[in-house]
Design a protein that fits this description.
- By secondary structure, the protein is of the alpha+beta class.
- The protein folds into 2 domains: 1-160, Immunoglobulin-like (Sandwich); 161-529, Alkaline phosphatase D (PhoD) (Purple Acid Phosphatase, chain A, domain 2).
- It contains 10 helices and 24 strands.
- It has helices at residues 7-13, 30-39, 44-47, 182-189, 229-240, 243-251, 274-287, 350-362, 398-410, 461-465, and strands at 63-66, 73-78, 95-102, 110-118, 125-130, 138-145, 148-149, 153-156, 165-171, 194-197, 254-256, 305-309, 313-317, 333-335, 367-372, 388-390, 416-420, 426-432, 442-448, 475-479, 484-491, 494-502, 512-521, 524-529.
- Strand 12 and strand 13 (313-317) form a beta hairpin.
- The longest helix has 14 residues, at 274-287.
- The protein is globular, with a radius of gyration of 23 Å.
- It binds fe (iii) ion and calcium ion.
- The site of fe (iii) ion has 6 residues, from loops.
């Protein structure tokens, strides 16, 4: 983890952002504010933050928490009384926000409180890193500004030492205009320690008025694809207006990573995408409960990170976009070429790959989970008839995949489980050490979560990918077109996953049911039950 940056470092690295931060829940000192004010060329009284009277609710985007440590958590909000306006309905001035953390939902037994500044350079978002909390317990929090108070959110710190159980959902792909979010409605209602978001939190596409189950009537800016910072902000704000997404964030801490659509479809580490990345990463940071170490610098935003849950689980949350090479055999569905096996092609970049392997080697946890975006198990599209693969997934980077899976085999990594997003379909897979070797052992299980809403109630992928599944006996379960989430209960002896499926996403009130349950047994790699 990077050490916290001083305001000075922050300002010199991000000259165009020029926004000092409250760190670690410490009250901003007059000294640091004076420094910040001079650096951002603002008169001091303005930099102290005004306390305006808000005519509309400034907390229209809700609250969120994330990235639990054993002694703290990140709290997030963004002041935006008019979320569908580029400025959120805020004047371009810093605003003081107060925050409180309590042991009870009535906010009487306060344990921490402080002040933060919502800076216009960060779209009046607030990220507070609270520390000094007890490990492994529930907390409640809220923000206030002027006379306005946010809803009370519920969150949780990570436990230390021996842990017997962890409950978390993992989710992906929530295209706003293709469906409502009944999955989030249920996640918000149910007990969870964590929610893990595996990417495609937003999509870059323009939104047509009147089209899709939400029948939107949006300002004209929404019709265009996201490209500028303002347009990416609008997309995040629009998604965040969904009441079920807000409820899920309010109810549980999230650990969020991205896939491609937060920026643009199927992008890679190629500099071609740097300007889109610069705008998209900034808006992503502004709208999610991320730590200071993830503040973007231009097109770079360090987001891969580890989450530890006592001695039970370690999550290595991967970023398979920012550092990947262009797919050696071309983009999209294409025949595999000999270059695919050249070692220089990378999915996560050499530095992150070393970090992942070090995490796995050094982990003391009983279960080693990998939060991943794109399918890691092989999906042979045509069996012996040809060599056709989808190159945006790990199938486009087989050498990079085999480095990791063979490492799991060689180092006897304890209970690796890959949780994956992206596909808009559900899979339960045995991950093989080497798909080039038909006798290769299973080294891990992979579970691909269905989309929350993407592809809507259409039946598209079942008819297309369904006939390919028999070529891939390690794919133990496949469903093409149902929407929902996966809810995991991790115990010392086994992992159980409920396949939580909405009857439809054309209706926010649609029923959500557990249609089947998957399991992995400790000490036995691969899918034990489906
Ligand atoms: Fe998606
Ligand atoms: Ca084939």
């Amino acid at each position: 983890m990077m050490p916290a940056m001083s305001s000075l470092e922050l300002d010199t690295r991000l000259t165009d952002l020029a926004a000092p931060k409250t760190r670690r829940g410490v009250l901003i000192s007059a000294g640091s504010l004076a420094l910040a004010a001079s650096l951002s060329r603002l008169p001091l009284d303005v930099a102290y933050g005004s306390t305006p009277r808000h005519r509309k609710d400034p907390f229209a985007l809700g609250v969120a928490s994330g990235d639990p440590h054993t002694d703290g958590i990140v709290l997030w909000t963004r002041l935006a009384p008019e979320p569908l306006r580029a400025d959120g309905g805020m004047e371009p001035r810093p605003v003081e926000v107060r925050w409180e953390v309590a042991k009870d939902p009535g906010m009487r037994r306060l344990v921490r409180r402080g002040r933060a500044t919502a800076w216009p350079a960060f779209a009046h978002s607030v990220h507070v890193e609270v520390d000094g909390l007890e490990d492994g317990r529930e907390y409640f929090y809220r923000f206030t500004t002027g006379a306005a108070a946010s809803p009370v959110g519920c969150t949780r710190t990570a436990p230390r030492g021996r842990v017997d159980e962890l409950t978390f959902s993992f989710v992906t792909c929530q295209k706003w205009d293709e469906g409502f979010y009944p999955a989030y409605r249920e996640i918000a209602r149910e007990d969870h320690d964590l929610v893990i978001h595996l990417g495609d939190y937003t999509y870059e596409y323009g939104i047509a008025n009147g089209v899709g189950p939400r029948k939107p009537q949006l300002p004209p800016e929404f019709a265009t694809e996201t490209d500028t910072l303002e347009r990416y902000r609008l997309q995040h704000a629009l998604y965040k207006t969904d009441p079920h997404l807000q409820a899920a964030h309010r109810a549980h801490p999230f650990v969020v990573i991205w896939d491609d659509h937060e920026v643009v479809n199927d992008y890679t580490g190629d500099p071609f995408w740097f300007s889109r990345r610069t705008n998209a990463y900034r808006a992503f940071y502004e709208h999610l409960p991320l730590r200071e170490e993830s503040i973007p610098r231009g097109p770079d935003m360090p987001i891969y990170r580890k989450v530890t849950w006592g001695d039970l689980a370690e999550f290595s949350m991967l970023d398979t976009r920012q550092y990947r090479s262009n797919p050696p055999c071309g983009f999209g569905e294409a025949d595999r070429c000999p270059e695919a096996f050249e070692p220089e092609h990378t999915m996560v970049g050499p530095k992150q790959e070393r970090w992942l392997l070090d995490n796995l080697r050094r982990s003391d946890a009983r279960w080693n989970l990998i939060g991943n975006q794109v399918l890691i198990a092989e999906l042979d599209h045509d069996g012996d008839a040809g060599d056709l693969f989808w190159n945006d997934s790990w199938d486009g980077y087989p050498a990079a995949r085999t480095r990791i899976t063979k490492f799991m085999q060689r180092e006897r990594i304890r209970n690796p489980v890959v949780i994956t997003g992206d596909w808009h379909s559900t899979f339960a897979n045995d991950v093989k050490a080497d798909y080039e070797d038909p006798r290769s052992p299973t080294v891990a299980a992979e579970f691909v979560a269905p989309s929350i809403s993407s592809n809507g109630d259409e039946e598209i992928y079942g008819p297309y990918y369904g006939p390919m599944i028999p070529f891939n006996p390690h794919i133990r379960f496949f469903d093409g077109d149902r929407r929902g989430s996966m809810k995991a209960r991790l115990k010392r002896s086994h992992l159980e996953i409920d396949w939580r499926i909405a009857d439809r996403v054309g209706d926010p009130n649609a029923r959500v049911r557990t249609l089947c349950r998957f399991a992995v047994e400790s000490g036995r790699p691969g899918v034990a039950q489906y």
